[in-house]
Design brief:
Layout (H helix, E strand, L loop, with lengths): L7 H12 L4 E4 L6 H9 L4 E4 L4 H12 L4 E6 H7 L3 H7 L3 E6 L12 H13 L3 E5 L5 H14 L3 E6 L1 H4 L9
Parallel strand pairs: 1-2, 1-3, 3-4, 4-6, 5-6
């Protein structure tokens, strides 16, 4: 099956993660992260970890750090709500943390179930002590993700980059008839 050609910003994320020495990529499958996930699966130097729920990824990130490795958590904005309690682990233990969050519940959202958490994502992260950066312009992705990675692993911060729904692209509901 032919994979769609990645956008330059999607490939930029892959390159930033490689340059930033990310060893583990934890994720719940998500179309917005599909290119990064595929590249992690192909790279023998990276361990890709499929999660059953996003909060497991917070523990993976902490465990990776304790084992001398760097991890990134890829999730959709709806998954942030699943992680709130686990974010206390990051605060208490002061682990570095990097998450890339594809946004839903914003621009041209067709699924009303995505709206509440999409609208609360940034505030939920900030309340739990996570610094949030947002990207809506493809030209800003590489620099923003790189800066977030440096803040997480060089300054021992907890950081999330929100990848706006306009950046990711409009999703359309398809009905089977």
């Amino acid at each position: 099956m032919n994979q769609p050609q990645p956008s330059p910003w999607q490939e930029a994320i892959v390159q930033v993660l490689k340059k930033g020495r990310i060893d583990q990529v934890a994720y719940v499958p998500d179309a917005g992260h599909a290119h990064v996930i595929r590249e992690a699966q192909r790279d023998p130097a990276v361990r890709d970890i499929v999660l059953t729920t996003e909060e497991e990824g917070v523990a993976v990130a902490g465990g990776a750090w304790l084992g001398g490795q760097r991890a990134v958590l890829l999730m959709q904005s709806s998954g942030v709500g699943n992680c709130v309690n686990m974010f206390s682990l990051l605060q208490t233990c002061q682990f570095p943390f990097l998450a890339l969050v594809t946004m839903r519940g914003e621009y041209a959202e067709f699924n009303p179930w995505q709206n509440p958490m999409g609208q609360a994502t940034q505030r939920a992260l900030e309340i739990m002590g996570v610094t949030v950066h947002r990207v809506d312009d493809p030209d800003d992705v590489e620099d923003t993700v790189s800066a977030a990675l440096d803040s997480a692993f060089d300054a021992n911060e907890r950081v999330a980059v929100l990848l706006g729904q306009k950046l990711i692209g409009r999703k359309k509901w398809e009905r089977n008839r």
